[in-house]
Amino acid sequence: MRKWLAPVLSALLLIAVHVPPSAADQQPTAADQLPSAADQLPSAADQLAALLGPVVEAAVSRAMQGGADAGQRALVELGRLEGRLDAAVHGLAELQLQFGRLEGRLEAAADQNVTCQCPPQQHVKTEELQPVTEEQEPSCETSPAPLLPGLGPYWVPERRTCARSCLQLRDQGGSPRDGVYWFTGMPVPVLCDFSHDGGGWTLLLTVAARDGWSPLSVLRRSERSPSLTSNYAILARADAIRDLGTGTRFAYRIEAQAETGRRRWGGIWLAPRGYSFVHEAPTQTSVSRAAKFDSWEYKDTGIEQRMPWLNLGAGSAVLTTSASATTQWYGTLVTHETNTGYTFSPWIYEQAVQSGRVLYWIREEML
């Protein structure tokens, strides 16, 4: 499916920015051209849908012919694509907003250039005239409060948070509170933790019960309802959050048995910038543990020194640190809903056999 993603997105960009040429004798101004360009933006999503329809149908058809494993892989790819398309459509909306703002500025400039044919005023001292500037209302919140809890699914607020992530909100100063925020450039609301391990953490996954988990739902589940106590996942968007950082490494945090308290049976790891949250093989092993919650060590029957990977093949483990998804699959964050052997997931033999409620976080920079 990735073979056709690039040309489709290229077509999207061409649709978004194309402005039909005007007749030479009309010589329209920049302000005249902007509305026609902006008017075309809303139709970009419709044209994209028309382009994608046959492609998606063909992909699904091939998946059905290829068997269960191929079908599952195709569904996962479609989930990832949907996340990318959400971001693209959001980008179009932002571009349309910029067109509108620029159009307003050009119109204001044109109004100022109109020559007034008024009689001269005799008794006005120019030094007493001060330019009147209307204070422009910011288009985003610089000092936001978290969205009201327990009201999910959340919808786009009138003004989003100016920062682009939990870490950026932490770094801009002030004392942000734990809770749900909708950031500029973010297609969904996210839950931020500013109270633990330096703050600036974004919640990617909450596993509160085994029901309903699969390689598809672990990518996106109840994504407009971030929660520490209910099943929730935005793993498909994790790499985009990672890319907001600029350092060579990022941090991720895992907490297990969170129903008994925070910072239990897990830790904080640092991973190379190129590592992915949706990697499909147990090969991302160059991670270093920066903090350990409770007393445990790496072992085959527990957490292994490996970034959690997404299993699309056989086995009950969906998201795991284990080298195998079928045998000795302790260290698993998410178990497939069809496995009834565990209430949650196998975690650390003897010390914490059941994972309990799992929380999985990202911070796009180490510090």
Automatic annotation (TrEMBL):
It comes from the Eukaryota. InterPro entries: Fibrinogen-like_C, Fibrinogen_a/b/g_C_1. SUPFAM superfamilies: Fibrinogen C-terminal domain-like. Keywords: Signal. Residues 1-24 form the signal peptide. This is Fibrinogen C-terminal domain-containing protein. It comes from Amphibalanus amphitrite.
